Every structure is written in C-alpha cells, then in structure tokens.
TrEMBL record:
Residues 22-118 form the MaoC-like domain. InterPro entries: HotDog_dom_sf, MaoC-like_dom. Gene3D superfamilies: Hotdog Thioesterase. This is MaoC family dehydratase.
C-alpha cells in the first residue's frame, strides 16, 4: 500500500464505498456500539413527536463510514486529521456511497501529505456529509 501512496496525485479518486440501505437494525447496533442511544435514532414515536417522519441515522455513523473509506485507502496510522460537516439527514432506506478525492499534495510538519475531500451521497445524489482528511503519504 505504501508504494501506491507515494504515487498519489491531485485529482486521484479513492475507490468508492457503498453501504447497504440504512435500516433499523443498523441504527440499533451503531447506537449500542457507540453509546449514542438518543431516542431520535431508535424510537419512531419519539422521532414523530420531534416532528420527524421516522428515526434517522446518527451523523457519526456516516462519519464512521467515511473513516472506513479512508482506512481502506491508507493505513489508519497515516491519518493526520479528519473532520466533517453534516449537510443533511440520512433517512431509513438511504443507500450511502462514500467518496473521496485528493485535492492537494503538500508538506505538513515535515511530511508529504495528501488533503482528501470526502463526502457521503445517497442514491438520489443528495450530499449528506462533506469533509476532509490529511493523510501522510510516506
């Protein structure tokens, strides 16, 4: 993997990661694993009282998927920073695709690094999360 990272250039795209449709089981499992048991993500009655049609995915679930996208491309030990902005709600039934593109190659703190723009997009082309990561290339 290291040799491939040494050849990274601006404009390179990370291999996309498409997840199965969001369902209640995924939300329950993520809630338990993360400790985020906010009922807006798990309890349809609570979600409806809050004005939502149903429960919806935790924002951090989609961020975790973007983390998986990044660590499939480069070892976790090379990740120097990773941040996102939440743009929209990921509803039940959404099929999320994680995407990444190298936008810059620069020396940061003495390391050759790639800045990678990342996003999650549902099957309707709606962007749900955008962000970026800094990855040391070696």
């Amino acid at each position: 993997m290291s040799n491939a990272l040494q050849n990274v250039k601006v404009g390179d795209r990370l291999p996309e990661l498409t997840l199965p449709a969001v369902n209640r089981t995924t939300l329950a499992l993520f809630g338990c694993a993360s400790g985020d048991l906010n009922p807006i993500h798990l309890d349809i009655d609570f979600a409806r009282k809050a004005g939502m049609p149903d429960v919806f995915a935790h924002g951090m679930l989609s961020m975790a998927w973007l983390g998986r996208l990044l660590t499939r491309w480069a070892p976790q030990s090379r990740l120097r920073s990773f941040g996102v902005r939440f743009q929209g709600i990921t509803h039940l039934g959404h099929i999320i695709t994680c995407q990444g593109r190298v936008t810059e190659i620069a020396e940061v703190n003495g390391e050759r690094c790639a800045r990678v723009e990342v996003a999650t997009v549902n099957q309707y082309g709606q962007i749900k999360i955008v962000g970026d990561a800094l990855v040391a290339l070696g």
